[in-house]
Amino acid sequence: MDEEYDVIVLGTGLTECILSGLLSVEGKKVLHMDRNDYYGGDSASLNLTQLYRKFRPDKEVPTDLGRDRDYAVDLVPKFIIASGELTKILVHTDVTRYLEFKQIAGSFVYRDGKISKVPSTEMEAVRSPLMGLFEKRRAKKFFEFLQNWRDGDPATHQGLDLDRDSMKTVYEKFGLEPGTQDFIGHAMALYLDDDYITKPARPTYDRILLYTSSMARYGKSPYIYPLYGLGELPQSFARLSAIYGGTYMLDKPIDAIVTDADGKFVGVTSGGETVKAKQVIGDPSYFGAEAKDGGKVRVVEEGKVVRAICFLKHPIPGTEDSDSCQIIIPQNQVNRRNDIYIAMVSSTHNVCAKDIYVAIVSTIVETDKPELEIRPGLDLLGPIYDKFVDITPLYTPTSTGEADNIFITRSYDATSHFETVVEDVQDVWKRVTGTDLVLKKREVEVQG
Amino acid sequence: MSKQFQFKLVLLGESAVGKSSLVLRFVKDQFDDYRESTIGAAFLTQTVTLEDQTTVKFEIWDTAGQERYKSLAPMYYRNANCAVVVYDITQAASLEKARTWIRELQRQADPSIVIALCGNKLDLAARRQVSQEEAKKYADEEGLMWTETSAKTGEGVTEIFTAIAQKLPLTAPSANRAGAARAAPGARTGVDLNKQSGASGQQEACNC
């Protein structure tokens, strides 16, 4: 390890792996290390042995769950938005050749004690119990307004200004009921709380269009999911990096981040050896969140997320026996500030044994009893065969890293998709390279 | 109409035994004496036509150096139909390494995987450290195919890939199961991100 690198990357979570893949393609000499003996960091998918080692190190893996190797249990419940930013990166970098995707079968929303499908077609919308007849007409006018909006054509604006008028003003213009607003803001625009309502309507407009265009792409839901679990995503970008010369070392405990007298990054010490590089990128757990780092505060906790990984032996009741789904419980429905999410996948996605369903219930922690907070979600699942509860702090870096060449990524947040992960990738890329991330199609050597 | 099958083939073996050279010879019929460690090797494919006109397309995965520090991802072994485990006949230790990789394959890959053990650098037979008898005996015990090759001269290279093609189960591809053959081309059962990409200018056909 006496070579010098351009960049050392610590942690093989998706954010770090996308960055090392893109940096390697750009010709940077990258050394990528992880303290774990598996890829994925906090965004890994674990087999049963690894899952038990993480949550119940003193317990044996039960034998009635099937083969260990059939499992790839996600630690973070997220789906890929079909027309979203992650999809663009997957296509541009061509890592799609290492992956196979399936649709998530349905998207549901909780309302007045029961769950209903978020309509994916006009037919479903007409039949949907989410709105009454007159409300459906008002909603139709609202969606037509959004679809027809052209920035340069005031005739399509109906007197509204998306950049100035709040979403509240837009909702009121079309006379939408609070329940419909809940459904649009949370199940379609995918906001976790109601703060968006008083802000300008533009971002909400963008989010709704992203949702509807993603829905239109494959039909059943706006989400796609990689076979064998989300952990395949970081692996595919790690392979991209390796193909472009990136060096990979798993199972490497990091002893210290070495800095010079001015506090600037020098290298990383692992197993008594120090490897030098110009820059370091890493997830928060390598910079004070868990590691010792000379007492310097490099990351701060912004809040906590509670996630309960549940094994079921049946599909979730009320989801038309969907093999996979998302259920959103808007905060208003259960008197909370933040939505509760359920993400469910099954053997259709090669993440567990046949007839097992893996549901993750999650939300942002608001009280000192996080497990009670996810109760409304757990109650929708029916009998739970087994449950692993994880309460994870969300860390964010205290500085941009430009001064000391130490660039820290963010923890995986409570959103149900990867859009914020890509925002973080773009942000770190800009801090590290000084330029905006522009996706170039890489040259592909295709034979026969 | 002649049948077409597509299989995933993974390469394994210690660094510098000639994994990439072997593939380069097979796919492009080239050899480079001073080849650097694998950098930028794209996804390679090569088609073998059998006597009955059945064509077998190999989708070849190189380790991209991830074997060096024991950091090959599970994705690498996933759905591999066949593996070529390479050792260097002039380095006894490389056969030991090959045994380790074969154990890893038996643990991680689909049980139906076809494994070929391949002693490379036959052109350097004068410096041989691994006897044919020893390697063959081990291969027989483990039920592996075995041969010796020279990526440099090309000796034995096409033969081993053809032999693998003949040994693979050429039955009707059952969709989407580990170890099952995929009908070529493009018989993925899931969604194709490339094809329906809404973003501009990427209508390029996907070859995977």
TrEMBL record, chain A:
Matching entries from Pfam families are given as:
GDI
Q: Name one GO molecular function term.
A: Rab GDP-dissociation inhibitor activity
Mention one GO biological process in which this protein takes part, according to its record: vesicle-mediated transport
Q: Does the keyword Transferase apply?
A: no
User: What keywords tag this UniProt record?
Assistant: GTPase activation
- InterPro entries linked: FAD/NAD-bd_sf (IPR036188), GDP_dissociation_inhibitor (IPR018203), RabGDI (IPR000806)
Give Gene Ontology CC terms.
Answer: cytoplasm
Of which family is this protein a member?
Belongs to the Rab GDI family.
- Name under which the protein is recorded: Rab GDP dissociation inhibitor
Q: State the organism named in the record.
A: Agrocybe pediades
From TrEMBL, chain B:
Record keyword Nuclease present? no
Alphabetically list the UniProt keywords: Cell membrane, GTP-binding, Lipoprotein, Membrane, Nucleotide-binding, Prenylation, Protein transport, Transport
Quote the biased-composition stretches of kind Polar residues, using this chain's numbering: 194-208
Please name one Pfam family that this protein belongs to. Answer: Ras
Single GO molecular function: GTPase activity
Localization of this protein: Cell membrane
Gene Ontology CC? endosome; plasma membrane
GO BP annotations of the record are: protein transport; vesicle organization; vesicle-mediated transport
| Region called Disordered, residue ranges | 179-208
Q: Where is the signal peptide?
A: none
In which residue ranges is the amino acid composition biased (Low complexity)?
179-190
The protein here is known as GTP-binding protein RAB5
Lineage summary: Eukaryota, Fungi, Dikarya, Basidiomycota, Agaricomycotina
